[in-house]
Amino acid sequence: MILVYGIKEHLNPIKSKLSDVIHGCMQSVLGMPEDKRAHRFIPMDADDFYYPGGRTASYTVIEINMMRGRSVETQKALIKELFSRIHSEVGISPVDVEITINEQPAHCWGFRGMTGDEARDLNYRVKV
C-alpha cells in the first residue's frame, strides 16, 4: 500500500501519471506484477500541509508500506529510481519529494481473508 500526500492543486493534476511512475518503479525494482497497484492519494489544502523550508508547493510525500524482506540495497535502489523517474517523467525535483519505506512482518498484513505469512500464492517475491 502506497500513500501519497501533497497540496491538492499540485497533486490532483498529476495523480494518474505519478501513480504510473510509482508502479513502474515497483515493477522494475521489486518485480511487482501489473495488477498489484495499491495507491492512495491524499490531496490536502495548503493550510493543512506544512513542509520544510527550501521546498516548493510541489512538495510530495510518498509512504511505501510493504512486507518485510527486501534487502537494504533493493530498498535504496527503489528510492533512487523513484527520485529519478519522478523528476524526469513528472517534473518534480528530488528536493520536493520525500519517500519513506515502512516494513512490517508478513503476519501483520491481512488480505483476501488471511495474513501475509499464510499466503502461498503470491505472484511476486518478497525477498529481493
From TrEMBL:
This is Tautomerase family protein. It comes from the Bacteria. It comes from Litchfieldella qijiaojingensis. InterPro entries: Tauto_MSAD (IPR037479), Tautomerase/MIF_sf (IPR014347). Gene3D superfamilies: Macrophage Migration Inhibitory Factor. Pfam families: Tautomerase_2.
